Structure formats: structure tokens, C-alpha cells
Amino acid sequence: MFPMKRLIPLITFLALLWPAEAVAAEQTAPKGKAEKAIDPALAPAILKIQNRPIVTLRGTLLGYSPKQRTEAAELRIGSAIERGLRGPVTTRPISEGLLVEIGGQGMFVITPGDLNALVDETSEEVGARAVQNLSTALREVEESRRAETFLRGAAYTAAATVVLLLVLAGV
Q: What ranges make up the beta strands (E) of 52-113?
């Protein structure tokens, strides 16, 4: 029989060695399809106008990643807003997918790679949602730039300040 004094160092040594062997075996094991990391350049990107989501782009187009496509579309839409481009937001089918336009000028393309296959989206559904979201965002931008909106906000602020002062004077 082993003396207890000899077993304690042996058990300690095995306990320290075991996690290292488990980690080494785990690192050399082949990874399954579910464990593959998504390339950050190909990750879906959400096109936003003034923090309002318009559409999620998932696929590449002519070598441009979804992130690059959303950045370019945001610049084009921002430029159109600054120029005061008016007109309806529409879609038009092209060879690459569905072109979303403001007043007849192309802003971005919805490709078949942008569709969410898990929910069986169609180009028409995504296009209609993008048109609705972009139209709403453009209306909100236009409304926020009118002088009437600023004056109404200033009047509400002044009224709230007077009410606050009256309440504080009463206390």
C-alpha cells in the first residue's frame, strides 16, 4: 500500500496536468460547421437614416461587403437630402436585384443575397419594406427641418418652464 504522503503529490500533479491535456485536445479537434466564425467583412449591416433602420444588407455586390454598401448608400441618401431631392421612393428591377430610388435616382440595390432565407423573404417584400421605411425617414427629416417645428418646440419648452416656475414659487 502507498503511503499517503506519496499520493498527495501524485494527485496534485495529475490534477494540474489534466486541464492542460483537455484544452490541447479541444484545440486540435476539428470544428463543425456550426462553430465556424463569420467573417466580419461579410456580416450583415443595417442601413440607417437618422437612426431609423431602413433595410438589412446581407450579401456582397460587385465585391463590396454589406458594410461598404450601407456606408455608400447612407452617403448617397444624405447627399440627396442635402440637395433637397424630392420625389417618391420607388423600386425598379435590374439585373443585380431591386434598385431603390428617390425621385428616379438610384440609392441602393437589394440583391438576392440580402434576403433572409430563414423566413423565406422575397425581393418584393424586402423592397416594399425598404420603400416604406425610407419614405417615413425622409418625411421625418423634412419635418424636422421646418421652422414651424422649431417654433412649436420652443413654445412647448417655454410653457413647461413657466409651469415649473409657478410650481416652485408655490412650494
A: 52-57, 89-94, 97-102, 105-110
Residue pointed to by grid coordinates 489534466: 18
DSSP string, 105-163: EEEEEE-GGGS-GGGT--HHHHHHHHHHHHHHHHHHHHHHTSHHHHHHHHHHHHHHHHH
- Report the sign of the C-alpha dihedral through residues 85, 87, 93, 97, in that order: positive
pTM of the model: 0.61
User: pLDDT tens, 57-93?
Assistant: 888 888 888 898 889 989 988 888 888 877 788 888 8
Q: In which element (H, E) is residue 48 found? A: strand 45-49
Which of 92, 94, 97, 82 lies closest to 49, judged by CA? 82
Question: Looking up cell 416656475, which residue turns up?
Answer: 165
* Pairwise CA distance, residues 60 & 63, whole Å: 6
Q: Are 45 and 67 in contact (CB under 8 A)?
A: yes
